Each structure stands twice: as C-alpha cells, then as structure tokens.
Amino acid sequence: MLVLKRLVAFIIMGVTALSAGAALAATAGQPEPWQLGLQKGATPVMDDIIWFHDLLLWLITAIALFVLALLVIVVVKFNARANPTPSRTTHNTTIEVLWTVVPVLILVTIAIPSFRLLFFQLNMPKADVTVKATGKQWFWTYSYPDEKFEFDSLMVQDKDLKQGQLRLLTVDNELVVPVNKVVLVDLRSQDVIHSFFVPSFRIKQDAVPGRTIRAWFEATKPGKYEWPCAELCGFGHSGMKGWVYVHTPEEYQKWAAENLAGGKAKQ
C-alpha cells in the first residue's frame, strides 16, 4: 500500500511538473520539457544549422546500422561452427574501391553544406542596428550608439519578482531589437571572459577583456528569447542571464523613443 501511495504521489508530481514546464515552454526561445534536438530556430543561421544537424543524424544512423549489419553477418556466417574451412582470400578489388570511394563521397556530402554554413555565419552583412554588449561581474550593459543611450540588465532578485516572472531567469531590462533586421553586436568585457549565447539564434561568441569581438544575427520571429552566459565567469555566473526581445520595427521605434524620452539616454 505504501508503495502504491508513493507511486501515485510520484505520478501527480510528474504531471504537475510537466504542466508547469509546458506553461514555461509557451514562451519563445526556451527549451521545452522532454525536448529532443535543438531549440526552434529564429534566425536563418539557426534554421540552416538545424537542417545540417538533421542531415548528419540520418547519415550517422545509416552508417551505424550498416556497420552493425556487417558485424552481425560476420558473427553469424563466419564463425568456426558455420564456416569450419575459412577462405584464404586476401584482396577484393571491388570491395577495396567501394570502401575508398564511398567514405570520400560521404565526406564531400558533409563538407559542402558545412563550408557554406560556416561562410554564412562568419560573413557579416551590413548592419541595420548596432548594439554594444559589455559583460561585467555579473550583469550586462547594452549600448545603442545610433540612438545614443545605454542601460544595465541585471537578474531580478527573488524579493523583487512580480507575478508571472520566472525565478533566476527574469532580468529588469531586456536587449531589444527589431525583427527582420540585421543586428551587429560589438562584444566587450570589463573584467573576465563572458559569453553571449542565444541558442535560438545560434549566436555564441565570447566577450574578452581588452578586445572588441563582433557577431551578428537576424531574428525572423518576434518574441522573447532567453540566453545564459556560457563561460564560467566567477562566483555570480548563474546571475549572468539575458533576454532578447524581438519587436516589430514600429514597436522598436516606439520603445527607443520612450527610453530616450524617459531619461535612460546617455549622451
């Protein structure tokens, strides 16, 4: 009876956790409960990466099954009981040509989209919006040179959380960008190495002290996208959370005007 009660309690807790997780996953740019694979893409680069990932998954699966089939054939057909008189064949031209040509074709199949994707990631288009992101212990400062204002983004502490805000994930100011616009990010660090990592955008670039490192993305879907610092940047590493809020161009211009008018500007 005790085991049954514990089983029922475990099932209830699991259903509750999944329900809460489903509600959490309703927000764009976050992992989903029982998720397999990558987060849903929100940029052309991420869409291409998901396609390339799926291609490699099919190739790897086919190769693994083929090798497994060969091993099973060898074990069953060529063991000492089934084949007491082994063949003394040492060469087979057809097989040797196949095991040379087929791997080359597989590598070419992988290399062509791989190089194309790498070029796409590293070839920065002309920017529509420029943002300077500075990592600090332990928060981010965002600066918009064109609009001439900047602000800090800190994780909201437990005592300051409002209804509906996520603990250890909510920040007081999100990085705001327009949809379908190329955003150039100038990454800097004031102290140690931090990392600007947005899984849904597939942008991951370190912010290194004394250097300016550039990255770019073009979000194609409005919404909020969570991102963590992916470097162990010290004691407050868990507080290096960030959110990218993708607006329509009209909403972005309105947001910029409100912040300039609200005194957040830094001339």
Fold-level CATH name of the largest domain: Immunoglobulin-like
CATH class division of the largest domain: Mainly Beta
Strand order of the largest sheet: 3-2-1-5-8
- Structural class, please? alpha+beta
> How many distinct helices?
4
Please describe the biggest sheet, giving its number of strands, its sense, and whether it closes into a barrel.
5 strands, mixed
Low-confidence stretches are: 3-8, 10-27
Our Rg estimate from Cα atoms comes to: 26 Å
Task: Tell me the count of domains.
Answer: 2
Query: What's the β-strand tally?
Result: 10
Structure commentary:
- With 267 residues, the chain is an alpha+beta fold.
- The protein folds into 2 domains: 44-82 and 92-122; 129-261, Cupredoxins -  blue copper proteins (Immunoglobulin-like), CATH 2.60.40.
- It has 4 helices and 10 strands.
- It has helices spanning 2-25, 44-77, 93-122, 249-261, and strands at residues 129-136, 139-144, 149-153, 175-178, 183-189, 194-198, 203-207, 213-217, 223-228, 241-247.
- The strands form 3 sheets. A 5-stranded mixed beta sheet has the order 3-2-1-5-8, with no helix packed on it.
- α2 (44-77) runs antiparallel to α3 (93-122).
